[in-house]
Automatic annotation (TrEMBL):
PANTHER family per record: HISTIDINE AMMONIA-LYASE
Organism: Siminovitchia acidinfaciens
Keywords, alphabetical: Cytoplasm, Histidine metabolism, Lyase
Cross-link 5-imidazolinone (Ala-Gly), where in sequence: A141-G143
PROSITE patterns: PAL_HISTIDASE (PS00488)
The protein's name: Histidine ammonia-lyase
Amino acid sequence: MITLDGQSLTFSEMHKFLFESEKVSFTEESMKLVQKSREAVEKIVAEEKVVYGINTGFGKFSDVLIGKEDVEELQLNLIRSHACGVGEPFPEIVSRAMVLLRANALLKGFSGVRPVVIKRLLDLVNAQIHPVIPQQGSLGASGDLAPLSHLALVLIGEGEVFYKGKRMSSIDAFSKEGVFPITLTAKEGLALINGTQAMTAMGVVAYLEAEKVAYQAEIISSITIEGLRGITDAFDEDIQLARGYKEQVEVAERIRSYLNDSYLSTKQGELRVQDAYSIRCIPQVHGATWQALNYVKEKLEIEMNAATDNPLIFDDGEKVLSGGNFHGQPIALAMDFLSIAVAELANISERRIERLVNPQLNDLPPFLSPKPGLQSGAMIMQYVAASLVSENKTFAHPASVDSIPSSANQEDHVSMGTIGARHAYQIVANTRRVLAIEAICSMQAAEIRGKEKMAAATRGFLEKGRKIVPFIHSDRVFSKDIENMSEWLRKEDIFFDKKGITELQA
């Protein structure tokens, strides 16, 4: 059971929640803070004080006063009018993350919602009821208004959900689980939608998958080193320490561990003096990606526990302040950085694929073909990798450098962070496919060299991988192989890090 308090949600807990369907609850102390902030809102409504979002309009309408008899209608109208999302829905796992993150933010006690709102959000994820939320339509400041409005629609019994593998109306899913919709009261609609949880949820899922891809890139590139009879001296610890980047040192250490007992890798001068950069510079390039991943993780962990709505309630209601915590710029920049860093894993992987298949760059059969000329072998697999890499370059254009004013120029600078997060997620998926192609080619090359000469760790990967993609004895429809390998890499039980070395050898 994961217990939320608005302050301490971790990536480890998010991993359990997203991939192991861990249930969620809340601390009593955090709910006491929620209750206090709610009492402050009710006092403001009763005394008819003018406070943005409680008894005023929104955005450019912030100067329009709303009577206390209309505050519930104000919130309902807000949710319905702002539910303008378009396009394909976010993956269900992202929707699940979004609901949890919104609940965690409200548990900080700065938002003025009733406890029942948070309890209902947690009811949804514990019952595996996930809102259908269109991906397009957020500017990433005033928060993720459109996506989160679709989330809020579900709470009031409108909108659609994913439930037990089916897409249906929220009311139908509620009836199956004994969950009841709620009526939003003063400030609650605004508190639900004025936040960065769409970009953060997408970012969390993208990061978790990117981390796995980065580890997998190391074991796969180690097999490539064997297939190309690469030189391991370039991974010597002294070289890495001489530069001083911790992540570079760690990448080289893991690759040395993978290749420790290999009879296919070579030493400096044995076959050649130096390898190409795509082999020799793996610690430097992959290590720099890890530096970016560490930065992204740090920003996401802060945002996972952040109050991002407006206004915020402090000092038991004595201070109600309008600010800009809904602005997604910190996550927008992090997502652009994630996109660039992961795209580079694909860039260098594609160059290794080229070295595996190009007969001018190795002494292997041309394109790893069983019968060169009659059979094309891996020729077009490299084309696919090149296409995916080029597509990544367009997705990696930073979304955060763009801004378009909205709400009659009241909201005159926005982050576009949700676009950045969506692009990062797509880049991770593309990069996994590039690595799947490298895995297929490197396994073929290493096995041509002699499976019995491989290191224990890399041979362990190959033996498992051969259950997914067989040795290429003749041309076949390689699209299926690429997708099967990619899906295998995506699965949660295939996670190659330091702890995974023993498993690979087993």
